[in-house]
Amino acid sequence: MSTTPNLLISYVAASQNQKEVTMNAAVLALEEALTDFTSVALTDADYTFATGQGSLGLSNIVFMFTGTLTATRNVIFPPNAKLYIVQNGTLGGSPVTTESLIFKVGTGATTVTISDSLYHLLYCNGVNNVYHIGTLTGPVGFGTGTSGQAVTTTSPGSPVTGPANPTTIIAYEQVVRNGTIYWLPLFQ
């Protein structure tokens, strides 16, 4: 069965039985590629995303990279055109430093180096270039809570719960997954 060129989502074949099965799987794959978040625990080495249908790099949009590193490391995207939202949550030689991550694809003609813990929007052309599109201008934390309540966080990107709020939320996105409300707050 053939697939789309970038997200590798299966097409519905003209003579296929149960077309709704393929269509439902395709809609789910598209939703995941546009909305899902995952944390990637780095070892003290370069990280290469697996390629292929349903791979981590193609089935998520937001990536938080964690781990303790001793040097700058490369993160190599799959060879598919795609938007990524990334956060460098790694630690360097001391608990207050972040080690740099270099994001690239292919031979890395154009790369992006991120040394802070903010969220960055990147575009990978799937060939040799990764471009920095923009940066969210405040530390962002993921958390859970009840609609209308504030969310606490101890560090950018840490999963949290609760009604207390030690800082001011200036904007947030509410997402419901499996009956749980998740917040993507932007703190001032």
Describe the structure.
The protein has 188 residues and is mainly beta. The chain has 2 domains: 37-135; 143-187, no CATH class. It contains 1 helix and 13 strands; from the N terminus they run H-E-E-E-E-E-E-E-E-E-E-E-E-E. It has one helix at 19-35; strands spanning 37-41, 47-48, 62-66, 73-76, 81-88, 101-104, 112-114, 119-125, 130-135, 143-144, 160-161, 169-177, 180-187. Strands 1-3-5-8-9 form a 5-stranded mixed beta sheet, with no helix packed on it. Strands 2-4-6-7 form a 4-stranded mixed beta sheet, with no helix packed on it. Strand 12 and strand 13 form a beta hairpin. The longest helix is centred in the first third of the chain and has 17 residues, at 19-35. It starts with 18 loop residues before the first helix and ends with a strand.
Features:
single chain, mainly beta, 1 helix
Radius of gyration: 18 Å
Largest sheet: 5 strands, mixed
Measured as a percent range, the helix fraction is under 10%
* Number of discrete domains: 2
The end-to-end span amounts to 48 Å
- Low-confidence parts, pLDDT < 50 over ≥5 residues? 138-169
Shape verdict: elongated
- Structural class call reads mainly beta
Strand fraction equals 25-35%
Number of helices: 1
**SSE order:** HEEEEEEEEEEEEE
Please give the order of strands in the largest beta sheet. Answer: 1-3-5-8-9
The strand count comes to: 13
